[in-house]
Amino acid sequence: MDKLLVSACLLGTPCRYDGRSKADTRVQVLSDKYDLIPICPEELGGLPTPREPSERQGERVAMRSGRDVTEEFRRGAAAALALCLQNGCKAAVLKEKSPSCGCGEVYDGTFSRRLIAGDGVTAEALKAHGITVYGEGDAEEL
Questions:
Q1: What is the dihedral sign for C-alpha 58, 60, 61, 64?
Q2: 73, 99 contact by CB (below 8 A)
């Protein structure tokens, strides 16, 4: 079975910033066709769960309080990429709109719930290494 990197929150792991999951049956059923490799880049980067919400602000990532967590997000992205490469994953299904995992759209960095075009730090790193990145809304394409 091919391996697929997946945001752990989509599989039911309570690792989101608010300590909850975002279990998604469209993603969970992919275990019938793929060996799923769950990841939470924010935890891999050393951030706790729960944690303050974060948003991308250009190349920087900041928590609502203003704390710069760019380095934690970069560390998590590097760890996710390493797991992807070690496992031979050619694709990933990541949590949409996330500052780590968002693909195509992320929050604008003002904590006002406005979306802008862009990718999360991990999605960006995976794409840069030729990994195809899907959001949970696109999981049925797999």
A1: negative
A2: yes
DSSP string, 130-142: T-EEEEGGGGGG-
Structure tokens at 58: 């250009």
Whether 13 contacts 127, CB under 8 Å: no
pLDDT tens, per residue, the chain with 142 residues:
899 999 999 999 999 999 999 999 999 999 999 999 999 999 999 999 999 999 999 999 999 999 999 999 999 999 999 999 999 999 999 999 999 999 999 999 999 999 999 999 999 999 999 999 999 999 988 8
Tokens matching residue 138? 């696109």
Radius of gyration of the chain (CA): 14
Q: Helix H segments across the chain?
A: 25-28, 41-44, 70-86, 121-128
Model pTM greater than 0.90?
yes
Q: What is the dihedral of CA 36, 37, 43, 49, to 10 degrees?
A: 30
